[in-house]
Amino acid sequence: MPFNPIDDAQDFTRIINSGKTVLIDFHADWSGLCRSTSQQFSELSDTFVRIGVDFYRVNVDELEDVVMEADVRVVPTYMVFKDGKKVGHATGVDGLSLHKLMGSYMTRCEVVA
Q1: Which residues contact 102 (CB under 8 A, 6 or more apart)?
Q2: How far, in Å, CA of 111 to CA of 31, rounded?
Q3: Is the pTM of this model over 0.70?
Q4: Using omega within 30 degrees of 0 as the cis cutoff, is the peptide bond preceding 76 cis?
Q5: Is 85 helix (H, G, I), strand (E, B) or coil?
Q6: Each residue of 45-66: pLDDT tens digit?
Q7: In Å, what is the CA distance from 40 to each residue of 6, 12, 15, 108?
Q8: Sheet of strand 3-5: strand arrangement
């Protein structure tokens, strides 16, 4: 499970501007929907971390300023950032949405192994 929590707004800004590709899971502890996709997020992170994608989580109840900046409207929401820009997103509990999100993003990228 190679993902880390984002602790504050400064951490969020630093991470999305790191030059790396990052996938962020915006979740809520109280949400059954978020809990049901947690395992899929973990499995996806195990796969894509090998090609340089970093995985993070934001608890929407703890970081409202980050939620507003990212324009998160529902949980769970998954967003891909590169060089400070949002390049993809998916919402909801469909486990395939995570795979589609990363699959569509990675087909547009040059992966150097």
Answers
A1: 23, 44, 48, 53, 80
A2: 34
A3: yes
A4: yes
A5: strand
A6: 877 777 788 999 999 999 999 9
A7: 19, 22, 22, 22
A8: 3-5, 53-59, 21-27, 77-82, 85-91
**Residue 58 contacts residue 48 (beta carbons within 8 Å):** no
Can you give the length of the chain in residues? Answer: 113
Nearest to 83 by CA among 12, 15, 24, 25: 15
Two tokens, residue 5: 């929590």
Reference 27, options 2, 59, 56; nearest CA is 59
Find where tokens 């962020």 sit: 24
Q: Cβ of 98: how many Cβ atoms within 10 Å?
A: 22
